[in-house]
Design goal:
homodimer, binds calcium ion, mainly beta, binds copper (II) ion
């Protein structure tokens, strides 16, 4: 007996099906003059169909459809082509799905600029050439590699790259650090790094520009070899390393831990990309680039959130060694959703959870199905959502267990695994949470490097870094016309009415409405009102503006200073919360191109607020930043634990209802004496 | 197959047994010259045995015993007697238990001052007289009460008191607000408040000093009556109120929610007051005054925490009406643990949890057993504690579900229910969490009162208030000799070694050691280093000081300005974290007497740091404050929900171990291809 009905209109937000990906791919291949390849080993100098994704409908069209006032919007795909032959990148809209008949170049419309080919993500095709290039380089230095790292026919080093790839626009010069070929390579640096210039789309023009060996720099391979042979180099002498990165259990199970079970049947239901749970319903999707997202989130059939989505995961590292010194990861440029792999039952989510497959097309020759990459389950939080015991009068007890619906993906982006949770509570709150786990990034410990972190293994430095995560929160509180309100307290010296000569400091409520985008861009390190609300000007039964409050849980470090050229590509991270007037063309706070053209980012979030538009009575979006400062320590080996390493946003009703909606939950328990 | 063994030495921290309470009570009654009564209706003018509690052993003695270097310390009780006949309060140590033979007045030793009788908590004996006094007052105003509130033989009003009771030391003048006799009286104010002076221990001297009716003040009952009869009063005309405070479910259960179950048997064990769980062991107790506490918390047999305990729960309210205008609740003066009532299976804790009875003696004629007032269970958090999926190299998966032990009490202190959790994680972290639920306090809505909150029901204002919670964290990191360290990041403009003319802002680690109590008293509203550590000067395998980090999760409002006379009684709330050199005589940050003699508090925490002692290489205690600003809203009716309304502290190993100890957990899962 579900309380809500499924609605097929949720498909307006559904990711492309396998068939749709194939049709779009085929359509692009019919455009012979574009000379596009879909081969996974397409060279950088050729034209490569990198990405096919759902192109989100215009909000007005989607709303009209959802609300029964308009037709189903034409379904469109976004296609990204890396034109190595021409030296640029193009984005197209291809439509109508499932059988496209036309395409439109939307690059300028979306980014107001051309996209140079150096802005592209490194493809499997390019990696293939990088590996070959490195093999070639390594083949000339067998002795050093053998003596230092035991490299041989059966033992290759593994690599980890610095990003951004250089210091200015157009650069594609990557410091590649090398790691032992063991479990958890990321914590096995060997002390050898190579700066590869792969700016040209022609691999034949690539070259080694510098090498770092045991803390010493060399201009060329030959330079290193000569000095090594002459004894001018402090040698690293190979010795076997313990397998400290292994995740193999070191003890046999005693007995299984506590498990979740559903006494009767599941109290939620999934149909297509639509979920219903108690009073909640929502549509979901998984963007290959930005990751998990939900749309048209309703409570009791009333839309509260139009879109809640992951936008970006960014980290800035510190080190003395070049591989980590400049590193600033912008994960949506590699693809966050792309790495939503299969979830492991009983570990990543409870055994009893529901698992959903996803399909994607990013840097592949054909659409990929990823089995069980989303999990959905109702969880007992093990604590009451509310309760009261009364013994002073009306002796009685009322309460209810906090059971909530969890919607989860986990994205293993190289070393790190981010766990993304959207949680739907029976009290009308929605929470977005992120936790980090997996391997830290590390560097070889050389003199002076302890300023940048802590030693976590023999000759291994865990590098200090920030985690900044951006969420898009498009609340629609009773429609599109909303206000941004703040509430806080202040002590006011007040005369006591019954003894007017006596004064006391009494807390008062302070309410404000922020009226422009710049007023509402709440910088880190500034005092911020404690309550932040997206409010309607409709009132609840008690005359208060119906609103949802944004409660942010964050342990972020410092954002990169604005003086740095790379900062504009992550300018969303300046703000705890920023409120913008919503636009279809301001869909994301970052972009696929921000990592590799970080100095001239295709999306600079600060431009969304530069025009300082009014945010009164407008369709508002809150861009919320959370995260944590990570100073790695021994307990990050082998893996960072989720406990304490995360952040989140809670969206809570605040005078939205006339009373707590959980009072209507069938989970309520009441005990009266006798 | 438990990993740890129980240890009876935990009994050194055990609450008194029923027999011990009885023996102490009996011993006190043998002291005829003290003329003490244990009758529950003992008058304020008589001498009343208010409290019997465990007197904690001196730490040095307890440690010697626990570590096999000393005898079992003599077991002692603290006894509090309210000497109404003499006008003071005395605290005694009575020993040895279980059969006391001597007592010692420790009042001066503990508080450095005499305790005036006006500092006492209102007892059941005093309430009995207050009720009679009010009956007497009300009997003279039957008409007003009938017409305004339908008061009659079968319908009495309920009361809720203002605290502190006045504006200066010695005052005992309480504004009593009246509420409808319905479920959740706290949200049913009628608009009638009476200022009762009950300063004298002789109830015959008590009098009404002022009345408030519908926003209008009156000097005497007669004054109100005269003006009421003459029509000079804006009358409240009784009308029946809907039962919006009821917690009765409004819907029938659909089906039961998800449940926790233990596949095999429980992986923890409780013996006496000792718990073992995986690598953890600890002793526990429940103070009638301060609430839940654990001692001698060990991981892998190594003591990490000597004491982790709740200290105080404080709230400051704002209102235009006197009942809430000056209100500052200091719950440990009423007794936090005192209100740890029976927990409801399946709502307050999972069905499968273990439940423990407690015994106490506070404002009672005989010891009271409270059944199932502590629950202990292992919970599956529904998410991995750690995990990594690798597909780039060494394709494999390793992870483990986050199963942790929860130790919980819930204390329903009048309107509010605080849920207290100590959580023990397999990664070596301990978390202390508090959440608030139950009823908000409210006042009658009169003109001008909306400055102090939001309307939440007909004629009802939910008053703005703060929640400040203090925890004592006596970490002993590898013994008593510890340091207080901070860590944070800073951007440093750095020349790139491989292109020295290019500079970049690179994050560096900033470590400091704070050396005195005043340096280490971290005020709210000041920028605080992001990582706070209690460190040993012993190093881990990688040469770093072994430490535990305190990660505080807090949403507090503003503390009362220090200009206010009442502030010294809550001076712990000035600080997010304050570190003191530990002393047996600085056992708590508040006291039983702070509420009713708030202007001359028996314990002023700020004095602990006034002597500005060195905190280098000393036994340190961290006093940690958390909480949240509460601006009540319609969804607080009928009950505040726990989601988002809380705070906590996470104690995390940071270079304490050489690697994450959870790697040794038998819950680890590893999957390799093929
Ligand atoms: Ca704008
Ligand atoms: Ca909106
Ligand atoms: Ca001191
Ligand atoms: Ca200590
Ligand atoms: Cu990290
Ligand atoms: Cu509250």
């Amino acid at each position: 007996p579900l309380r809500r009905k499924h609605d097929k209109r949720s498909l307006v937000f559904a990711d492309l099906t396998r068939e749709e990906y194939l049709q779009v791919q085929q359509y692009m291949l019919t455009l012979k003059d574009l000379d596009i390849s879909t081969n996974s080993l397409t060279k950088p100098s050729e034209n490569f169909l990198f990405l096919i994704e759902l192109s989100l409908p215009k909000k007005a069209d989607a709303l009209a459809y959802l609300d029964g006032k308009g037709a189903n919007p034409i379904r469109e795909a976004t296609v990204v082509v890396f034109y190595g032959a021409q030296g640029y990148i193009k984005e197209y809209v291809v439509a109508p799905l499932p059988y496209p008949t036309y395409h439109r170049d939307v690059t300028m419309e979306r980014y107001k600029t051309e996209l140079p080919i150096t802005a592209r993500t490194v493809t499997i095709g390019e990696y293939d050439l990088v590996f070959k290039f490195l093999d070639e380089v390594f083949s000339k230095m067998g002795k050093i590699l053998k003596e230092s790292f035991d490299v041989g026919p059966n033992n290759k080093l593994q690599m980890f790259e610095q990003m951004p790839r250089g210091v200015r626009s157009g650069d594609r010069k990557t410091w590649i650090s090398f790691f032992r070929n063991m479990s958890g390579i990321y914590i096995h640096p060997v002390g050898f790094e190579v700066l590869v210039n792969h700016q040209s789309v022609n691999a034949s023009a690539w070259r080694v520009e510098r090498l770092l060996y045991n803390g010493q720099y060399f201009d060329t391979v030959k330079d290193l070899q000569d000095k090594y042979d002459k004894g001018f180099v402090k040698k690293i002498v190979y010795k076997q390393s313990p397998d400290y990165g292994s995740l193999k259990p070191r003890n046999k199970p005693l007995q299984i831990g506590p498990q979740l079970f559903y006494g009767e049947f599941k109290r939620y239901s999934i149909s297509n990309n639509h979920v219903v749970y108690m009073d909640w319903s929502f549509a979901f999707g998984l963007s290959s680039l930005t990751g998990m997202r939900v749309f048209d989130v309703r409570f009791n059939d009333e839309r509260i959130v139009y879109e809640l989505s992951v936008q970006e995961a960014m980290s800035v590292y510190g080190s003395l060694t070049p591989g980590m010194m400049l590193t600033k990861f912008l994960d949506s440029s590699i693809g966050i959703g792309r790495f939503a792999h299969e979830l492991v039952r009983g570990v990543d989510c409870p055994h009893e959870a529901s698992y959903v497959d996803t399909y994607r097309y990013i840097d592949v020759p054909a659409p990929v199905r990823v089995r069980n990459s989303i999990c959905i389950f109702e969880h007992s939080m093990g604590q009451p959502l509310r309760r009261h015991f009364s013994d002073f009068s009306h002796t009685s007890y009322g309460g209810m267990m906090n059971s909530a619906l969890v919607f989860r993906t986990i994205t293993a982006i190289g070393n790190y695994d981010y766990m993304w949770d959207f949680i739907f509570y029976q009290s009308g709150s929605v929470e977005a949470k992120v936790h980090a786990t997996g391997y830290i990034a590390s560097s070889y410990l050389v003199d002076g490097n302890l300023k940048y972190g802590h030693q976590v293994a023999d000759k291994v430095l865990g590098n200090i870094h920030t985690h900044f995560i951006n969420f898009k929160v498009d609340l629609d509180v009773l429609g599109l016309n909303n206000y941004f309100q703040t509430k806080d307290m202040e002590y006011v010296n007040t005369s006591l009415p019954w003894m007017p000569d006596h004064y006391a400091m009494v807390p008062q409520l302070v309410e404000k409405q922020l009226k422009t985008e710049q007023e509402a861009a709440l910088h880190h390190d500034t005092k911020t009102p404690r309550y932040l609300h997206i409010a309607s000007n409709k009132t609840n039964r008690w005359g208060h503006q119906r609103s949802y409050r944004l409660q942010v849980l964050s342990f972020t470090g410092d954002n990169l200073p604005e003086s740095q050229a790379e900062e504009r590509a992550m300018s969303w991270a300046r703000y705890k919360v920023a409120i913008t007037k919503r636009k279809d063309l301001e869909q994301t706070s970052s972009s696929l191109y921000n990592q590799n053209n970080i100095w001239t980012p295709a999306v600079d979030f600060s431009k969304y607020i530069a025009d300082n538009e009014s945010i009164e009575n407008e369709d508002l979006v809150a861009w919320v930043t959370t995260g944590f400062l990570h100073i790695p320590h021994a307990e990050d080996i082998p893996n960072t634990v989720t406990v304490g390493n995360g952040g989140g946003i809670l969206l809570r009703p605040h005078n939205y209802f006339d009373e707590d909606p959980s009072i209507h939950s069938a989970d309520g328990v009441y005990i009266a004496p006798g």
